[in-house]
Amino acid sequence: MRIDIITVLPEMIESPLDHSIIKRAREKGLAEIYLHNLRDFSDDKHRRVDDYSFSKGAGMVMAIQPIEKAIETLKKERHYDEIIFTTPDGKLFDQQEANMLSLKENIIILCGHYKGVDQRVRDLFITKEISIGDYVLTGGELAAAVITDSVVRLLPGVLSDETSALTDSFQDNLLSPPVYTRPAEYKGMKVPEILLSGNDKLVDDWKQQQAIERTKTLRPDLYKKFMGEQD
Known about the structure:
Elements: E1 2-7, H1 10-14, H2 20-27, E2 32-37, E3 50-52, E4 60-62, H3 64-75, E5 82-92, H4 95-101, E6 106-111, H5 119-124, E7 128-131, H6 141-152, E8 185-186, E9 189-190, H7 200-218, H8 220-230
Parallel strand pairs: 1-2, 1-6, 5-6, 5-7
Antiparallel strand pairs: 3-4, 8-9
Helix pairs in contact: 7-8
């Protein structure tokens, strides 16, 4: 998979993409991730990428010219399955979306900034608009890092245990069950006996029930989705 990230602050996103699982995925050649400074595509002599809004509202707006040039430059080199814009008014990102994106080959992520982007960019180039939550960040760089991390870890060969990602929270509209490790007893608190039983069937049933109960209590919205799938 290749992910091209277009941003006005490449230095803000470099570190999260150069550590841990993402770093290993890049070193193994399982994921290619490239950062592109939007200012490099500006025709303005001062490398400006924003301008005042015609509506005379507060805040600056990302201009269409450098964005078009950046996207068209990349598209000349390869086909892109998705061109994503990170924006607070986009579709809320979830595990199912991450799963679908992990099946793509080439993705562009345009990081939102300022008061937003010229609507013509969204109309002409963007295929998917994504928000990582109902709040506003300084820019879309952290959102792009979140999307990239959640997608890349799903690629075959990235995790040493590929089944691990399949049992994460949200995969089946359920939260993960509680987990334990050694020692079996710590300051009077014991690991549930069933986890020490060696009976895989009973353990799996216990985990499923715990996941259901935790989801029902902590995320009733997800629980409704899960129950809908069971009908």
